[in-house]
Every structure is written in structure tokens, then in C-alpha cells.
């Protein structure tokens, strides 16, 4: 089975048209301009649908979503 971080990398690469070797799991995707708010919305929807978690607006923060590592940790916590 593909890991959460690998699935996120693949999705983000497809959404942005980048190769997944252009960024790492600890790259600050939003802060460094790799993704914009429209792509972030798509990422949040992907996470909700793929991992069956509800993400309240208040949880959509840089702390939770700026890197793939942060997103993976958030998903792991949300799935409990």
C-alpha cells in the first residue's frame, strides 16, 4: 500500500504540474509559493475524501498543512 506522504506528493505534483522530485516532505509548500490557496483547497478536499476525515476550517493552518510531513501527521491524528 502506498504511504500517506507518497499519496500526498503524487496528488500535489499532479495538481501543480510539478514533478514530485521538485519538493520534499519538509518543503514549506504554501509559505514558499509551491501551492496557492486554490491548490490548498483541492488538497483539503483530497484528504477529506481519501482518508474519510472532516477538517474544520479552524484546523486549516500552516502548522497542519504547510508541509507534507505536517499533513501526514494531521491525518494520522485525525484518524486516531
From TrEMBL:
Residues 2-79 form the Carrier domain. Gene3D superfamilies: ACP-like. Pfam families: PP-binding. This is Acyl carrier protein. It comes from Aliiroseovarius pelagivivens. The lineage of its organism: Bacteria, Pseudomonadati, Pseudomonadota, Alphaproteobacteria, Rhodobacterales.
